[in-house]
Design goal:
The protein is α/β, with parallel strands linked by helices. Helices cover 28% and strands 24% of the residues. The longest helix is centred in the first third of the chain and has 11 residues. The N and C termini lie far apart (51 Å).
Length: 209
């Protein structure tokens, strides 16, 4: 089983949130695959790397070429199974070829910071995705948790909800979770500020009932 592809969640960003088993497998790998920011955190290990950009098919070919002779670890921010790389790898290689190590997602950390449960939430990602369907999800659920990106901001979400006639909601904006500049704000739907200078936020939308 030595040639299994390790798919490793590395948490929300701060190294304190990486699990010991993830660190052990990363240290033992010959090749690390991940986004540029993720790989920068492990540059001191001096491993061979492959940077994920808009090149997933090339990544798959690279893994096929290298895995007979190398232990490969694919590093994913947060948890690889939550709007992450796992779905693509499963389609490319199949579940029996993967060893998945879960990580702490930004959603889990956001809910921990707010001291709310997340088992009863509806989840949505507009990180590199369309906002289509989000307003209906919010209309039909009292707790919705959304991953954003620099273009699909919390303020843009709020405007789309107001345009759809949804106003009776409280919105929490969680920025830079786990980092020193972490910030969490609570807003009425018509006072959500623009957020700049971040790769994305976790937005928690709660009904007032």
């Amino acid at each position: 089983m030595a040639d299994l592809i390790r798919v490793i969640g590395i948490g929300p960003g701060n190294p304190d949130y990486i699990t010991p088993v993830a660190l052990e497998l990363i240290s033992g790998a010959d090749i690390l695959i991940g986004g540029e920011r993720v790989l920068r955190d492990f540059a001191g290990l001096a491993k061979e790397t492959f940077v994920i950009r808009n090149n997933l098919s090339q990544m798959a070919e690279f893994i096929k070429e290298k895995r007979p002779d190398s232990e490969i670890a694919v590093l994913a921010s947060g948890d690889p199974a939550f709007f992450g790389i796992l779905e693509y790898l499963r389609k490319s290689f199949g579940a029996p070829e993967l060893m998945v190590i879960p990580g702490i997602s930004s959603v889990q950390l956001a809910c921990a910071r707010l001291a709310i449960s997340w088992h009863d939430a509806a989840f949505y990602s507009i990180h590199g995705r369309s906002m289509e369907g989000l307003t209906d999800l919010v209309r039909n659920h009292t707790k919705v948790i959304v991953l954003t990106d620099p273009g699909n901001t919390p303020a843009k979400i709020a405007r789309s909800l107001i345009e759809a006639g949804i106003r009776d909601r409280k919105i929490y904006v969680c920025e830079n979770l786990s980092y020193e500049d972490e910030k969490i704000g609570e807003f009425d739907i018509d006072s959500v500020p623009e957020v700049v200078g971040t790769n994305g936020c976790v937005v928690v939308i709660l009904g007032r009932g």
